[in-house]
Amino acid sequence: xxxxxxxxxxxxxxxxxxxxxxxxxxxxxxxxxxxxxxxxxxxxxxxxxxxxxxxxxxxxxxxxxxxxxxxxxxxxxxxxxxxxxxxxxxxxxxxxxxxxxxxxxxxxxxxxxxxxxxxxxxxxxxxxxxxxxxxxxxxxxxxxxxxxxxxxxxxxxxxxxxxxxxxxxxxxxxxxxxxxxxxxxxxxxxxxxxxxxxxxxxxxxxxxxxxxxxxxxxxxxxxxxxxxxxxxxxxxxxxxxxxxxxx
Length: 247
Hints:
Blueprint: H1 3-22, H2 32-36, H3 44-47, E1 50-71, E2 77-100, E3 105-116, E4 119-123, E5 129-147, E6 152-170, E7 179-197, E8 202-213, E9 216-221, E10 227-246
Antiparallel strand pairs: 1-2, 1-10, 2-3, 3-5, 4-5, 5-6, 6-7, 7-8, 8-10, 9-10
Main location: membrane
InterPro entries: Beta-barrel_OMP, OMP-like, OMP/PagP_B-barrel
Subcellular location: Membrane
């Protein structure tokens, strides 16, 4: 081999590493899930702070207890009772605002409205029928949460609730007077749930709620001295799923 050929070969060997340094290595392939995963630069609590709106729906269980009493002018009373625990579907929406109290602690307020499919009818005795329908509910409350990461938060909540209930009592035999009552009942709602951030603005949630309502009674007095009275008590269990936007 000529000296010139040896020199060219040596130069090629020495130049190869330098040339490699001029071109950075191609990045390693990235998982598609990581490529589209949201990136959060803020503290975990900041991800869940700000105004929000959501829709939700799920299982609704209402325990309804109704007692209807008719008293004639002589003071003779006849009554009928109905217990109607029933399952149905609830659906609604809410607006809220959360703030970060620390890097992981969140507090917020919210207001919501919902309706229910629950309607229960039963024969009390003979041909008598009593029906109870769960109507709309409105709530105002607050919550406190703990960010487990920049994507998941757990929380507990409490709220004041006002719900509408309609009760009907029909006596097809004509022994008792037919009765109908529509009532707005107040209660306290407690719950717990979680939120999962899908993107910086979109989240999914799951929640359990228990509502205890005040007992309600309605009395109608008539000119002949007779009267009708309806006593109502109820509680509620709900398991919900929802989707929301944070601004």
